[in-house]
Amino acid sequence: MQWDVLDGKITSWIQFMRIAVKLLFSSERKLCDQVFHGLEPYRETCFSEVTGNSVTMLLTFGESIAKSKRSPEKLFVLLDMYETMRELFPEVEIIFGGKPSASICEAVSGLTQRLAQTAEETFNDFADAVEKDVTKTPVQDGTVHPLTSYVINYVKFLFDYQVTLRQLFGEDEMVEPAKSQLAAATVKIMAALQTNLDGKSKLYRDPALAHVFLMNNIHYMVKSVRRSEAKDVLGEDWVQRHRRIVQQHAQNYKRVAWSKVLQSLSVQGLTSSGSGLGNEGSMSTGVSRTMLKDRFKTFNFQFEELYQRQIQWFVPDVELRESLRLTVAEVLLPAYRSFLKRFGSLMDGGKNPQKYVKYTPEQLDTMLGELFEGSKPKTEPRR
């Protein structure tokens, strides 16, 4: 069956199981006791024969689920089934307490144990499945990968089943949350996710985008953990350590993406060996006009190329997006203002100065404010 169809049938089975035990079999027990009062062993034999096929039909479906191929999405329905069977078992023991029905009690107990075993094996498989996820298509804009959101939501759901998982693992209620098997598994799952994301980042040809991708995904992990019960398990140290990793990727992005642009605004290499205005365009300041034109052209080309590319990248978290823009603006705008103040006027006397000095600092600031929107450019680069 397709998973969505099977999931619906499991939900129905849980409902039917409750109705069958709490209403149908319970009422049948009362009716049988009234009709066959004092007529042993016929009372128990009759009850067993009347209910046996119905119980078998319900348990057969449960057995087929418990024995089916394990997959991560089945864990929570397995836990739901296990919870239901565990909750109903005391009533089953009372209703089917007669000797002819002993096999039914054994079958219910056996299914409960098999559901527990399958759920525990599925739970233990998850971290390995995360680390071995082989999706080879990178998210083009460097945003949060579907695997990341899936794993984080999965972990959140696990904490909704804390009590059931403790029962499953046979843990004492006095065990501290941070020392539970759920805690150990959460740490393992998060480490597996990070290992997988590191591998996926290597699929990007642009190393700057790889850093944005890792920054986005680890930030999503940190933010989600801080807002969930997982924080009590992973601890504040885990949160702070991974926040530093986010900041490190932001700094690495800035260095990898913008170092060449900043280099074009450096004074180094502009000084001419001569002074005075010569045939090659050297100016009395000792700066070669030809080299200066090349620098402005280089800056314009590199900046426009980065703008066109990075406006299509996406940083979904608003605060992180603004912080990353500010990180770039804090190094680029002062460098550009200084370069423009020192050499911009020297281009005024030449032909078509606007061809070289294409942007004011304010225009650059506006364009930087459009980065990481995951959209088409809003500002058309000047020609």
TrEMBL record:
Task: Output the Gene Ontology terms for molecular function.
Answer: phosphatidylinositol-4,5-bisphosphate binding
- PANTHER family given in the database record: EXOCYST COMPLEX COMPONENT 7, EXOCYST COMPLEX PROTEIN EXO70
Organism listed in the record: Ceratopteris richardii
Residue ranges occupied by any Exocyst complex subunit Exo70 C-terminal domain in the UniProt entry: 11-369
Q: Which SUPFAM superfamilies match?
A: Cullin repeat-like (SSF74788)
Q: Which UniProt keywords apply?
A: Exocytosis, Protein transport, Transport
InterPro entries in UniProt: Cullin_repeat-like_dom_sf (IPR016159), Exo70 (IPR004140), Exo70_C (IPR046364)
Fetch the Pfam families from UniProt. Answer: Exo70_C
Its protein name is Exocyst subunit Exo70 family protein
Summary of the function given for this chain in its UniProt record: Component of the exocyst complex.
